[in-house]
Model the fold of this input.
Amino acid sequence: MKRTLGFLLVVTLFLVSSQTSHAQRFGYIDSEFILQKMPAYSNAQAEVDKLSAAWQKEIENMRAEVEKLKKAYQAEEILLTSEMKTKRLEEITKKENEVREYQRKMFGFEGSLFKKREEMIRPAQDQLFEAVEKVVRQKGLSFIFDKSSRDVVMLYTDPRHDYTEYVLEELGLASKEANSQGARPADALIDKPEDIPPLPEAATENSPSKNTKPASGTKKPPVKKKNN
Done:
């Protein structure tokens, strides 16, 4: 979904920028953060999770049936003829193949879950694209990038170019105070200026003054007494 979202955002922005003749301006948004704030997206995701849980339950029941057949075969194997053993084993193999095929059909690449997610989340994505296009036109931007897309590597982002809040305003989801970012992935790159260590100051500025009094608690060297 992120690849599709990133691609469509880039296409939208190039179409908008092609109609402008002034100096190019750019910005970025966090589409994943915005989507998490959208009720349409949250509701769609909840429905997808329900479907996923229901299909997973069906698969578990099918596997339980296979295990039941296996245990029955093991318990009766000594009493079965060679022909009966072959027939029972073929039945078990057939059931196992049915479970694998159903799992692939439901959860495999471009399976039912993938298609259902795309179908149910598309309305929220369309709303996001429309809001982004409005912000691009209002702010006179030529380019805007998606910070959450894996297709775009952003090693550093200046908060001045973050238009996420403007898009949230267009969607009617802006808060009185700036929305706080959600948890970032553990392997995400650090992009906050305050996280960058400061440059070392000049040695003269760090060197202590000659008149500086010793810190409290430090011991003074013992004074030798003269012999009378």
About this structure: The radius of gyration is 32 Å. Confidence is low (pLDDT under 50) at residues 13-22, 182-200, 202-212, 214-218. The longest strand covers residues 26-29.
